[in-house]
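seq:
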Amino acid sequence: MLNIRNYQDIDFSGVQMLMNRSNEFDSFSWPLLREKLYGDPDWNPSRTWIAELDDQIVGFMLGVTRNIRGTNYGYIKLMGVEPSVRRKKIATQLFSTLESQFIQEGMNIFRIYDVPLNYYMPGIDPRYTPAICFAQKMGFTHFGDSVNMQVDLNDRDWEVSPQLEQLKKEDISIYRATVEDKPELFGFISTEWALWQNELEMAYRSKPVSIHIARYKGKIKAFSAYDGNNQGTGWFGPMGTHPDLRGKGIGTLLLYLCLNDIKKQGLKTATIPWVAPISFYSHYANAKIDRVFWRFEKKLTNV
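struct:
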């Protein structure tokens, strides 16, 4: 008999094995899965569900919530079903449990995977055809796509020290962020890029700090980061530049500083996730679209 219950810490190893068996195009290491659960700023075990069959974990669904600009979003952040027992409505029962919970909690919109602040995939990779079919069956609507791009770190030399020296003549200084920079940096992102605060918090935990900033006339006007999400996997971003510095090539230099750091970690590639300016990364880093994701949502209220 199938048993649906909340996740407990003792389930972690079983969930990790399940996720790796049920997600053929992805790999969930111990640190990565731990970050997706315990590292989420809104993680709550009461929204994380396990399906057991004969005392074996055969299904997993991680639910999280966010309030974004006054709208309450509920998300399936991760899910997996044991391949040998699919088509037995295990995912449906997990989903029904989570959906009822989100409705009771007043969520307005239900989405799958594309969770701001802490996420693994910005949507469903359509190669996971059963997941696409599941989303459609559960009443979700496909409302957009997103892409990840990949950079070959051996493609070129990412060193930019000469350019940084030249910029000093224009009163522009670019360097690795320090703890002393943190209050001003977080003030800088508080309006246009407030959703990136958690990723910068994570980047500040790296050793060395995995953030580079640009100051113009003494004030922070741009930044770039890596390892703010999916740490240790070569995940680039976020990055932002104030209009005062746009058009001066600052974004490119900040990108190269991060890619150089990732290369020094011993990685061969870097991932640029959830990309909007595809042409920018293609032109300046020879980045190529690596994965495409379909975004799905279901309205739970009229808001």
